[in-house]
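Protocol step 4 of 5: obtain the predicted structure for the target chain.
Materials: sequence only (see below). No template structures provided, no constraints applied. The aim of this step is simply to have a reference model before the mutagenesis design in step 5. Sequence pasted as it appears in the construct record:
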Amino acid sequence: MNVRLNPYIGFRDEAREALAFYHSVFGGELSMMTFAEGGMPHDPAEENRIMHGQIDAPNGMTLMISDTPSGMDMQAGSNISISLSGDDVSLLRSYWEKLVADGQVSMPLETAPWGDMFGMLSDRFGITWMVNIAGQGH
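Step 4 output (structure tokens):
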């Protein structure tokens, strides 16, 4: 049996834009279903918003995103951080560079006290990302 943990990010009205952005970062297969397509009860004004979106990257990562209906409370980016880690230097640096575009670095990607390269940023949607590149400290 296989078990997988993956982030699921909720937006108010930016899920479609966020999916396009993250798809440009991670590549892979992108799928989207609107509230109208999903057949769930919804405000007619929200029928074209994303009920469920998913990116399945070639390396096995999965990211899920949806729009939160207007009748539900939410605060964007307030209670999620996403961590990318591994030892593929070029791939992780590429993710960092793409995610930081129009975002803000809170901790530069540099050697951390534990010897790895580590950095933190908030992307243009306010989502916090942590990148850890193993074995890169000197």
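Step 4 remarks: The two ends are 39 Å apart (CA to CA). The first strand starts at residue 8 and ends at 11.
Proceed to step 5.
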